[in-house]
Amino acid sequence: MQNSEHETNLMIDRRLVQCFDWGMLGLTLLLAGVGVLTIYSAVTAGLPVPERMVYIKQLVWFGVGFFLMIVTFLFDYKKLDQWAFAIYAGSILLLVCVLIFGKHIGGARRWLALGPISVQPSEMVKIALIIILSRQYAKTATKKGLTLRELILPILLTAVPFVLIVKQPDLGTALLLVLIAGSITLFVKIERKSLLCIMGTGLISVPLVWSLLKGYQKQRILTFLDPERDPLGAGYHIIQSKIAIGSGMITGKGFLKGTQNTLSFLPEQHTDFIFSVFAEEWGFVGSAVLILILLVFIVWGLNIAYGCRDPFGIILAFGITTLIFWQVFINIGMVMGLMPVVGIPLPFISYGGSSIITMMLGVGLLMNVSMRRFQLE
Amino acid sequence: MAESKKTSEVNWFKQRLTLAMFFIMAAFALLIARSFYLQVIERDEFSRLSENNCIRLQSIDPPRGMIFDREGTLLVENRPSFDLNIVLKDAKPVRQTLEHLSVYAQVSAEELSSKLERKNGLSLYKPTLIKADIGRDSLAAIEVRRFDLPGIEVNVRSLRHYLRRGTSAHIIGYLGEINSEELKGDAYPDARSGDFVGKFGAEKSFDRYLRGKRGGQQVEVNATGQVVRVLQTVDAQPGHNIYLTIDQALQEKAQDLLEGIAGSVVAMDPNTGEILVMVSSPSFDQNAFVSGLSRDHWRELITNPFRPMENKAIQGEYPPGSTYKIITAIAGLEEGVIDRHTTFFCPGFYRYGDRVFRCWKKGGHGTVDVERALEESCDVFFYQVGQKLGVDRLAWHAKASGLGEPTGIDLDHEASGLIPTAAWKKNRTGVPWQRGETLSIAIGQGYDLVTPLQMAVLTAAVASNGISYKPIIIRRIETAEGKIVFENKPKVARKLPASKQTLEIVRRGLWQVVNGDRGTARVAKVKGIEICGKTGTSQVVGRKKNEVARDVERAAHQKAHAWFVAYAPAEHPQIAVAVVVENGEHGSSASAPIAREIIKSYLNRPHPSWHIKGNSEDHLVSSNAKFGT
Asked: What total of structural domains would you count in chain B?
């Protein structure tokens, strides 16, 4: 009772309004704008039948995401401490549902149909995992670093969604979860002894697991690591993507003037390969500017963590920022031929409802932490 | 205290954040550097590549596996077909290019451009087929004038070539363009629309072995679409070669014997279940399917009253007629309603209730025991055996011997036949079983339906002491390099529910059929080979599907089908045969000579493979042990 009164008071607290993170909002809107314009180009330029619905849908998703973002920063993020398990359990349940009722698209079950729309629970689970790990580490982290015993629970919490997503199968997203969990864990520090122990186990188990894999599984992993091995599939997509980006040259071909995008030379041109479309049209100048805007966004996120005075808030803000960082790095790295070909969307730019909602929830949380940085318990 | 601890912790986190910041800066520097490399340093190369969208994928189709007979005679191979394709984007001006092409290829320009009239799905960048299978002369003319023909590609595609046209068509089968259902399913994971896949026979059943794996090339093309550089190649993996169990020489012999006849011959090795001959007549030419069948040709094939597209060996369901007496005899002996000495008197008819059931021989057979009844095919004897057994006990024995269900051979659309029971009739017609009907069933008329393959399997089982092998048509499968990937081993499907003594009695009866003084198939007697067999004549009325015959054909259609089942030699049988001649009237005259000729030519020639099979006694013992009875 007192809590809710407290919250109502806070909502109109002038301090909160003063601390509202306009910068973050501005950066988000800027990225969303770039995204929608690039999608517009990707699905209309040169196509005989433009798929106009796609960018309109993206606008609708941003609208929904914007609303959810506001909801997310209205309550005090410290409440998440209590809700963490419920949120985590709920998203795991959704992942289980996907495996049972999910829609088969392109040989994988990743989508859950909710009436006319489809959601990808593997997107939502990223946020849930960050919240629950933040809660866990906020309790256990010390300067000395985490002991092996303290790592058991976080490993289990990561392993459950990891296995469920591998089953879909969506190796890329599953590995992204491990990257996020790993980054957060390294951030809060692991005891030197434990770290060596884990690295040792890893080194020993890699050849062991490798020898247990079947021939075609090995092939799949090798292709994943080196798309050139599959010149008719992933390798072909990468070379087309590189041609698109490289042919943009310094100043680009101009908005709606991209040519590789048309006639399906680029795969997934409005989702995973959206950066190639952008880079072809805006050249090195545009690419560098977009990469820098994304960098500013990420640094802004780290700065929110920096300004926070509460371990839970710090780890939470760091986790969200890490999520965005890895997705940006993997996606752009992939389309430029530096990374394996995985279905990781570019935050705010790639088309996709689940991805947009997840990112906007993340922004809401970052703003939440940012707004309450001067509060003391 | 707690507060200060927390503050120090928070300060410590700040150090970690600074560390993370450096890491992130480094990662972004890498992205910008890569972007600089692609868009500034390598910009001319990528720009050139993008100009004509000139990196293309070309698929390399794998050669489909070949098909051989059991001795390695080549039955099916591939031949090259040269196809003309056009890439619209490169073929500018299209009209002029097509006009040039029509001169060199000696095809009218209208025919060439007709392929480009449909608007949907035409790709500017992908090759579109405009003329398939051009001759070598046209090919040479086109190759020489390449410069006149921008955007024209000659692609070599391999086409199926069936060497022994018409023979084994039903076993080998044919290919057809993949349909949308097959594309959606899991059976053809790498298939694309336009691919040809097995549609019938072994081509279908063993498609996953025969088809191989598609390869491809990443190529760079110039402004006119000619390949200037191959960037990457993934080789196609050729399909596996298949060795059928069929004996091609014997198969052709059987085909000749059935010339002009609608019917079927199945021969198998009773010691292994290998199918040596499977002929369904009339046959069809598979080569007609290779480059697409015309609508008229197809209509003619499917409306032909002699059903050339049906594999009568497995799809033809016929009343077994007197060949079914083998089952009735076994059931009677096993159930104890008769023994080898039981005799009945045949005056030429049998009165049951208020009906009179006739024997085929008007004057009657006199007093006969079971062996004699088989030899002379006495109906009256088996009426009484059937009456004593009842329909359900008879049906149990028939089903336990493998009738009434598919044999499980690796071919599609195998019919199950029909073995009626009292419950089946009640269920199906609502009318209870009439006891008189059992009498018809006992001599293989009425509702009973069997396929030639089922009868061949049954005969083989009687020949090999009651051990029934699953019929197989594949001996082995090899990779293109000759590595064996699969070798078929004889598989015991069941053991006939009959004692050694019972089978011996039946076999003596079957020996008498051919070799006895009054046997119904004395015509099948061959010097030097002891053949055992059973004739059958099955009335056409009462077929499962009430086929309404056209008036003109009615007379021929109402003639009975002629059966003959046989095995030889009597000691250590090596071959079992079932022959059915549609509307052939008498098994003795129409079918028995065919079986005789097949057996004769099989046993009268040297057989290297017999040595491999080894001692058939040993084989039986080990099979028995496997069966565990």
From this structure: 2
CB-based contact, B16 to chain A, within 8 Å = yes
Domain that holds residue B431: 248-283+310-627
Encoded tokens for A98: 């996907």
The pairs formed by B143-149 with CB atoms below 8 angstroms and a separation of 24 or more are B145/B100, B145/B104, B146/B226, B148/B97, B148/B100, B148/B104, B149/B91, B149/B97, B149/B100, B149/B101, B149/B104
Helix or strand run (H / E) with residue B52: none
pLDDT at residue B505, as a whole number = 94
B466 and B609 assigned to the same domain: yes
B210 and B264 co-located in one domain: no
Q: Is residue B12 part of a domain?
A: no
Amino acid at B24: I
Q: Check CB contact of B216 with chain A, cutoff 8 Å.
A: yes
Query: Considering B322, B401, B464, B591, which one is annotated as catalytic?
Result: B322
pTM, full prediction:
0.69
pLDDT tops 60 at residue A343: yes
CB–CB of B443/B383 below 8 Å?
Answer: yes
Interchain CB distance below 8 Å, A287 and B35? yes
Query: A120 vs A61, A170, B581, CA distance in Å?
Result: 14, 11, 63
Cβ contact A263–B46 (<8 Å): no
The answer to whether A165 touches A174, Cβ cutoff 8 Å, is yes
Same domain, residue pair B475 and B488: yes
Domain containing residue B496: CATH number: 3.40.710.10
**CATH, residue B89:** 3.90.1310.10
The per-residue pLDDT for B402 is: 92
The partner residues of B157 in beta bridges, in order of sequence, read B81
pLDDT > 90 in chain A, percent: 43
Interface with chain B: mutation pick from A188, A226, A228, A242, highest number of B CBs within 10 Å: A242
Give this complex's ipTM: 0.91
